[in-house]
Specification:
The complex is a heterodimer of chains A (571) and B (243). Chain A is 37% helix and 19% strand. Chain A has 571 residues and is α/β, with parallel strands linked by helices. Among the domains of chain A are: 287 residues, FAD/NAD(P)-binding domain (3-Layer(bba) Sandwich); 110 residues, Succinate dehydrogenase/fumarate reductase flavoprotein, catalytic domain (Flavocytochrome C3, Chain A, domain 1, Alpha-Beta Complex). The N and C termini of chain A lie far apart (61 Å). With 243 residues, chain B is of the alpha+beta class. Chain B folds into two domains: 99 residues, Beta-grasp domain (Ubiquitin-like (UB roll), Roll); 137 residues, Alpha-helical ferredoxin (Fumarate Reductase Iron-sulfur Protein, Chain B, domain 2), CATH 1.10.1060. In chain B, a hairpin with a 2-residue loop joins strand 6 and strand 7. Classes of the chains: A alpha/beta (571), B alpha+beta (243). Chains A and B meet through helix 3, helix 4, helix 10, helix 13 and helix 15 of A and helix 1, helix 2 and helix 3 of B.
Chain lengths: 571, 243
């Protein structure tokens, strides 16, 4: 078959903060770059980021430094982080923020004209640069406009469903235009995955429809290693009512600005769980605490707890948290300047993902790079709020540089394997030729229910095994899915592809969770409630061997002595 | 709770018709919830564009009961009961399928806008300077303002008129405290600013409550007038440069 074909030195898959930052970098190196976006440009999940971007700029707390940011990140991640990623992140994020400003971003200011920074969970100092509670929008618009004027080619509403290799190395990818349903082939020297996370595996999630773990699945299928998949962050504060918005994010900025968490006995229950940090404890801790309060009967009417910011002046709330004010007012009939919100945990962020080299974002497959949420290692067992937006720009830039350098060294484009290409196209088309009543939406609902109840905040062996069996059953059913309608903008067809990614991600999360027989960060085992030193030195690795999912472990990279000393000093 | 009938446009560029779907109602439900129910249970191929479901991404614009709106923000209890709820795609853009239209024209316009260029000396910026511009930067690109603007909707002047969304962007750039690009030629000759006769339809429909007409369009019109039609200023600019 002859397919529409495009050629780029580097293809970036994903147009959120990480993908756009990577593309800008490739373009700056003088190479041709294409960016593929599953949605329209500027709608990626980065747009939902609210509270801020973490960087030790020391504008508000002069004592802040990269060293403290590094220590906070490692502590938050329960020391499972890739130390080099955490170090580069802490050292480089202030420059990346100044750079965003050079490209036109406008953050909230201190009285003396510097970028204002707010407090956030797990950060020793006021560290989050922000724009009210719409920091992600500011970032994505800045990067979008920078990208558009840097000469990058953007392919909007195009979904990649297979990476193509030439022998062992990356050679291209195949996808389809949603608008026409037609296939598109990309010939490329290097690919940067920047596809974000897979929150849509869960029923209650802050994630948008796009977050189906496509990059995790594409990389896994191509033979790359995934690490830390057992660590799925449940953000402590999602909306719990009305039903249609259950899971929608309530920014940590509410607590950063002084919001208080209480139960139905009007107790500030964080006193029981983390009396030192209280509301600004790390997300894993606050999520577990809220879950426990609700489970023990001290919850709010709709099954959450109360989050109250009404003690602040109404004008200040509207100024610093405008979209929270509108979100509650319009969707839940709650005026947050006068009454408390009801909130509960919501699946939010994947710490796990493609194993990459810290400096270049290179995966274990030649030519395949990754950055942002699709990678693992940076955040260890639990991510601190604000460290994701900075991750996007620090490692977006680095993956862009890594991919550009790799592409430059290849004299010619690798060859596409026509057989592999045809097979990928056929696999994607087959659902139209099948008949049957199996509905992709039904399978998605069952997956979400199982992940929520069996692979959720608290886990135990029996549940995880049940979950794995259910995923196996759903995989078989998904392989028989029939699609109705035309190829043009058909969401049912699209969901068949998304499900494939979601099922791979879910299988990886459940199996990794079964393997880690301890509780650490976002991974809480009822049957192994304590941290186990042995597991503290291991990453769980997921990879594909002979068509099956293979789970193994590998040692956490050893930190140099000076960083060990630094952590000991900052304890 | 009882079912409500949704009359949803099904079709493409060649034409189509509204199809009735009965949808069970839950408390606090929005129009987008109903469309997800239809997709999940009644019509898996119903094309709807959406992302965040929180009024932050601006993807789910449509015309609900004839009124341009974000479907994720339109509560069913804000609509009249006892009769069907109609959902149609935005009228100003060509339909791709069902509720999804081709909004790519907007992205083409954006590319033509002379980009941000910072002053060389990265000077300090104060909150007062930021406040005015931040209003424009709230825009979520839902394109509802483009949809209602009669210059685009009735007169179809897409070739010569950038539309309210891009006047907002232009205002954001022009009033950026650290920007030095001169966009006056673009504003006067390419943006079609003069075609706007300030009926404020865009302002009324903006889900971010940006005062598009008063705060963006009128000041831009004044800039053009000052620049090109004020003789004193013209001489001054010739000698000292703009800004």
């Amino acid at each position: 078959m002859n397919y529409e074909t495009h050629e780029h030195d580097v293809l970036v898959i994903g147009a959120g903060g990480a993908g756009l930052r990577a593309a800008v970098e490739v373009s700056a190196k003088g190479l041709s770059v294409g960016v593929v976006s599953k949605s329209l440009l500027g709608k990626a999940h980065t747009v939902m980021a609210e509270g801020g971007i973490a960087a030790a700029m020391a504008n508000v707390d002069a004592k802040d430094s990269w060293q403290t940011h590094f220590s906070d990140t490692m502590k938050g991640g329960k020391f499972l982080n890739n130390w080099r990623m955490a170090q580069l992140h802490a050292q480089e994020s202030p420059d990346r923020i100044r750079e965003l400003e050079d490209w036109g971003a406008l953050f909230d200011r201190t009285p003396d004209g510097e970028i204002l920074q707010r407090a956030f969970g797990g950060h020793t100092y006021k560290r989050l640069c922000h724009v009210g509670d719409r920091t992600g929008l500011e970032m994505i618009r800045t990067l979008q406009d920078k990208g558009v004027h840097s000469g990058i080619d953007v392919y909007m509403e195009l979904t990649i469903f297979r990476l193509l290799k030439d022998g062992g190395k990356i050679a291209g990818a195949i996808g389809y235009w949603r608008k026409t349903g037609e296939f598109v082939v990309f010939k490329t020297k290097a690919i940067v995955l920047a596809t974000g996370g897979g929150g849509k595996a869960y029923q209650i999630t802050s994630n948008s429809w796009e977050c189906t773990g496509d990059g995790h699945a594409l990389a896994y299928e191509a033979g790359a290693e995934l690490i830390d998949m057992e660590f799925f962050q449940f953000h402590p504060t999602g909306m719990v009512w009305p039903p249609g918005v259950k899971g929608l994010l309530v920014t940590e900025g509410v607590r950063g600005e002084g919001g208080l968490l209480t139960n139905n006995k009007k107790e500030r229950f964080m006193q029981r769980y983390d009396p030192k940090m209280m509301e600004l404890s790390t997300r894993d801790m606050v999520a577990r605490s809220i879950y426990t309060e609700v489970k023990e009967g001290r919850g709010s009417p709709h099954g959450g707890v109360f989050l109250d910011i009404s003690h602040l002046a109404a004008e200040r709330v509207k100024k610093k948290l405008p979209s929270m004010y509108h979100q509650f007012k319009e969707l839940a009939d709650v005026d947050i300047t006068r009454e408390p919100m009801e909130v509960g945990p919501t699946a939010h962020y994947m710490m796990g993902g493609v194993r990459v080299d810290a400096e270049t974002g290179a995966s274990t497959i030649p030519g395949l790079f990754a950055c942002g949420e699709v990678t693992g290692g940076m955040h260890g067992a639990n991510r601190l709020g604000g460290n994701s937006l900075s991750d996007l720009v620090v490692f977006g830039r680095r993956a862009g540089m890594g991919a550009a350098e790799y592409a430059r060294k290849l004299n010619s484009f690798p060859l596409l394997d026509q057989g592999e290409l045809e097979k990928a196209a056929k696999d994607m088309e087959t659902p139209f030729q099948r008949s049957g009543d199996e509905n992709p939406y039904q399978i998605h609902r069952e997956l979400q229910e199982s992940m929520q109840s069996l692979v959720g905040i608290f886990r135990m062996e029996e549940d995880l095994k049940k979950g794995i069996n259910k995923i196996e059953e759903l995989k078989h059913r998904a392989a028989k899915l029939a699609v109705k309608g035309e190829r043009t903008y058909n969401p049912g067809w699209h969901l068949v592809g998304d499900l494939k990614s979601l099922l791979t991600v879910s299988e990886a999360v459940a199996n990794a969770a079964l393997t880690r027989k301890e509780s650490r960060g976002a991974h809480s085992r009822i049957d192994y409630p304590n941290m186990d030193e042995k597991f503290g030195k291991l990453n769980v690795v997921v990879s594909r061997k002979n068509g099956e999912m293979n789970i193994s472990t590998s040692p956490v990279p050893e930190m140099p002595e000076e960083l060990k000393r630094l952590l000991a000093e900052n304890k | 709770m009882p079912d409500v009938t949704f009359k949803v446009f099904r079709g493409d560029a060649k034409g189509g018709q509204a199809i009735d779907y009965p949808v069970p109602i839950a408390p606090g439900m929005v129009v987008l919830d109903a469309l997800h129910y239809i997709q999940g249970y009644l019509a898996p191929d119903l094309a709807v564009r959406w992302n965040c479901k929180a009024a932050k991404c601006g993807s789910c614009s449509a015309e609900v009961n004839g009124k341009p709106a974000l479907m994720c923000k339109t509560r069913l209890d804000s609509l009249p009961t006892g009769r069907p709820i109609t959902v149609y795609p935005m009228k100003t853009f060509p339909v791709i399928k069902d509720l999804v239209c081709d909004v790519s024209w907007n992205y083409d316009v954006n590319k033509k806008i002379p980009p941000y260029r910072p002053a060389k000396d990265g000077r300090k910026i104060y909150q007062e300077d930021v406040d005015r511009v931040q209003e424009f930067r709230k825009c979520i690109e839902c394109f509802l303002c483009q949809d209602v603007c009669h210059v685009l909707r009735e007169h179809e002047k897409k070739a010569e008129f950038a539309g309210p969304r891009f006047f907002v962007r232009l205002a954001g750039l022009e009033m950026h405290p650290n920007d030095i690009t001169d966009r006056s030629e673009f504003l006067k000759n390419s943006s079609g600013l003069g075609l706007c006769n300030i009926t404020k339809c865009c302002t009324e429909v903006c889900p971010e409550e940006i005062h598009i007409t008063d705060n963006a369009i009128i000041p831009l019109k004044e800039r053009v007038a000052d620049r090109f039609f004020d003789p004193l200023r013209w001489v001054f600019a010739k000698i000292f440069g703009r800004k």
